[in-house]
Amino acid sequence: MFRRIWAVIQKEFIQTLRDRSTLTLLLTMPVLQLFLYGFAINMNVDHIATVVADHSLDASSRAYVAALESSTYFDVIGYVQSEAEVTQMIDAGRARVGIVIPDAFDTQVARGDAHVLFLIDGSDYFTMQAAYSAGNVIAQAHASELVFAKVARSGLAIRGEPPLDTRMRILYNPDMDQLWFVIPGLAAMLLQTQSIALTAAAVVREFEVGTMEQLLVTPIRPGELLLGKIVPNIVIAMINMLTVLGLGHFVFGVPFRGSPRLFMALSFVYVFAGLGLGLLISTIAKNLKQVSQMILMVMMLGVVLGGFMFPRYSMPPVLRWVGNLFPMTYFIPISRGIVTKGVGLELLWDNVLPLAIYAIVIMVISSRLFRQGLE
Fold it and tell me: Could you give the CA distance from residue 364 to residue 11 in angstroms, rounded to a whole number?
């Protein structure tokens, strides 16, 4: 039995190595994606282009604008004369935020009833969120400074500390580096993509070019054929996963806090689940075009509903249930738990057990359908 399986494994490796362009694409795509996420995609929004319409032009208005600029969230790119011009700048895409300061701002500040109009471009969600949150926080901080300055000028002694002192501590990612969040999820996404795509394409290609019939006349059994075809895909998927984690650690400084052995073991379970899903697609698809369309749909749903970029707890229950149909949903918390938090198996059972059950069930169903297709 082993000799028959080894023969299929050798065939798959030879076929893969001969197609050097595809192999090069498979091995370089994860690196390209990693560098795109590392350098081109930035979810930490700052230095937002800002235009100001200052109708007051006094010390208080200049101090407020200076407070916004010193936060590094807002970069003032110019001054205009009216709110209409601010809106035009935002409409043209030259600014993302506009600030309108009314007349006699100094007098309003002295009375304690000053107000400023913030106009934010709502067509860019991440910029909108960052500008809204930062604008509120900076305004509150600046208002507190003005109150303390007013009390000090009145000659009254300021005793003690402010009545509320909030101290925040960011666990596991103190610098709030987005790559510490992205790379463990990216490793999960790549493993699922390649384990599904390689298996589905390898099986359907045999049917499409007519070589599956040649394999069926040999003494090899369907289960042995299946095992021989998926082993090379496991090797390629694991190489890419290690490449992403290695570059993330040594190039981008993302720490690996957990157990590498535990991560590798659970990665094999995860890949096994992805192979089962890819095999299921291969039993449904009739040609490589259908395979690519199904894989694209599965990956889109998996990325959106699996928690790679968006938190699952904020999704409606129906969408969370649909997300449970993809192995990435279970592996992303495992990957982030081991890589970022350094936790062990005792804290990961809520995701490890469903992933193991998923892998067994999907592989059993797919194997039976695969055998029926061969027969």
Answer: 25
In tens digits, the chain (375 residues) has pLDDT values of 666 666 656 666 666 666 666 667 666 766 776 666 666 555 667 789 999 999 988 888 898 899 899 988 899 999 999 999 999 998 888 898 999 998 988 888 877 778 889 899 887 667 788 888 888 888 888 777 776 666 666 655 555 555 444 555 677 887 777 778 888 888 888 888 878 877 777 667 666 665 655 555 566 665 666 666 677 777 877 888 888 888 888 888 888 989 999 998 999 899 889 888 888 887 787 777 777 788 888 888 888 888 887 778 778 889 889 999 999 999 999 998 999 888 889 889 999 999 999 999 988 888 777 665 555
CB atoms within 10 A of CB 166: 5
Residue 253 domain flag: yes
Do 189 and 313 lie in one domain? The reply is yes
Number of domains in the chain: 2
Q: Which residue do the tokens 């600046």 mark? A: 142
Asked if residue 327 and residue 204 are part of one domain, the reply reads yes
Does a structural domain hold residue 62? yes
> Is residue 320 packed enough to be buried (19+ CB in 10 Å), middle (13-18) or exposed (0-12)?
middle
Q: Enter the pTM of the model.
A: 0.72
Q: Helix 328-336 vs helix 288-305: angle between axes, to the nearest 10 degrees? A: 50
Structure tokens at 63: 């101090």
Sheet holding 117-120, edge to edge: 74-79, 48-54, 97-101, 117-120
Rounded (5°) CA angle 268-270-276: 105
Are 353 and 334 in contact by the 8 Å Cβ rule? The answer is no
Examine the domain organization and report whether 92 and 205 are in the same domain: no
Q: Are strands 117-120 and 74-79 parallel, antiparallel or unpaired?
A: unpaired
Domain that holds residue 232: 2-41+177-374
